[in-house]
Design goal:
Elements: E1 2-9, H1 14-25, E2 30-36, E3 41-46, H2 53-61, E4 66-67
Antiparallel strand pairs: 1-3, 1-4, 2-3
Length: 68
Amino acid sequence: MEKTTLQVSGMTCGHCEKAVKTALLNVEGVSEVSVSLKDGKVEVGHDGSKAPLGKLKEAVEDQGYDVV
């Protein structure tokens, strides 16, 4: 399992946190997600072959947030 940290801008509240977490957990190969609103960081535990970085970014960006 790989651990990837994404820097996400635009998250400001609990709803934002839940939307990002749910979107990432729905990506095949993602097993855990931890969101820090204060730091704007999302840590993702995932299988890199099933859930590459591009899929993770796409899941977050589909929710209206930017991965920087």
